[in-house]
Structures are given as C-alpha cells and as structure tokens.
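Amino acid chain:
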Amino acid sequence: MRLPGTEKWDSANVVSQIAFEQNFAATAPKLMREVGYSDALPFKAKPSDANISEAIFALGRAAELAFATEQISLGLQICEEIALKYLRPTTLMQIAFGATVTAATGFVRVELDNKGITLRSYTEESINIPWPRDNSAAAADLLRWFLPSAVASVPRSTLDSQLQNPVEYGISYQEFTQLKLDSEFRALADNGEFNLTRLGVILSLEDGFKARLLNLQNDVHHWEMFEPKGSLIDWRLLCLWVGIYRFDPDMAKLASGIKQQRNDAGEFIRSLAANLSKKPFGPLKP
C-alpha cells in the first residue's frame, strides 16, 4: 500500500530523490567536519571521533520515500545501512532516531534494564546508554525516546515487567506518573488499561498522523518536489504497530475487527507494520 497522496508521484523522480539523500548521507560527515559544524555534543564520544552530521536523517528520509512508494526491499536496505554504519559514535538524538528506525525494521533490538538501555544488532556489537540517575526528568525523557523501539523489540510481557519499577532507572514516581498521562505512553505501554481503551488511544494517534500528513500535502511545492517539511512516516507509531503484530496477537485481532471511520494514513502504517513484522531479526538475505 502506498502512502496516501503519493499516487501521482513519478517513480523515476522518486528514485532520483532517494539516490540524492543516499549520496548526501555519504558525503555529509566530511562536509560537516570541514565547516566545523556540530548539532549536539556526541554521546560518550570525543567530537573528533563523532559522526556529527545529518547523514542518519538523510537516510531516514530516503527510507521514508522508499516505504511510502511501496519499495519495501529498498527501504529495508537503507535501514540496514543505518544499523551498520550510523548508530555509533553519534549523538544521543541520532541514536534514538536510529533505534526507532532499525527496531521497526528488525535490524536492532532495544532492551531496558536497571543499568540502562541496550541496542543489540545482529553484528553482535551493542550500544549501552546508562540511566542518568541524578536527573529524574532526563531519565524520563530517555525512556520516552526509546520506548517505541523497545515495544518493537521485545514481547509485551517482558516490557511490562521492565516498567514496573521506574525508580531503578532513576525516574521518580512523580515523574513516572506524569509520563503515564501522555497519550503515546498509554498507547505503547500496558499501563493497566484494557486493550479496547488502549486501542482508542492508538486510533487517536493515527488521527494525528493523518492530520500532519494533510498539512504536508497542503505545502504543494515541497510535496511535489518529494521534499515535505516533515516526516512522511510516523516511525514511533510504526514501531507500536510492529510490536503489536510481532508480540500481541490479541491486540492485533481486536484492531482488525473494530469498525471505525476510514483513516487511510493509519491504514498505511498498519499495512507497512504488518509487512515489516514478518521480517526476522538479523541481516537481509544476500
């Protein structure tokens, strides 16, 4: 299924734009070093060692274009490149974005424990991010950033047990109580709610994605140039549905049977998630 609004995009031009983003990703690190630009302090890395560039986001845009136009194999190849080359050393926000993209596509597993967050790839290399125990708000933000990729990585029963005692992560009960009020957290985590209640929250997130997509399409110039001023895919929502299709058959069955007003953007995310959830963890077959 194509992303709504892309039906009239010229295939050859889309391929050219994907190639442009890939080429930019390849040259961006050198360019950024030459101009001395840094978007943030790199996580646990010296500035001279860090891949402080736009590269990972350029590849993210390329993957979005591929998935939006039903080029699933190409999208997976791009996400595998992110997993292999662009997760370390890098900035914390780049890691969070890369974890979301690669967990949704089955190249990286994201796990939580009382020590921190671990990204495991099929190359047997891992990235460990410790909880900032002296800063409850920062620890809550870290959980918020990486929770979608964890949802796509581990069974719900495992994740629910990992969220039982947030104090182990340096998150105060007050901070955690506030976090649980977020719509996205209620959709991602069990939170003691019935599946039907949780599904209602998910549908509201899908409505939000549809509204954002319509706003992008209203900027006709950038939309027709394949350069929308925002993400084509809600990766966090995609992770949520990938996790449901991978690990939560009861929720998947409930979602397939409920009658709702048509939301073609949400339908696209579900269709893509169902496809990606069938890919086993690990590398693409040669």
In short: The longest strand covers residues 116-121.
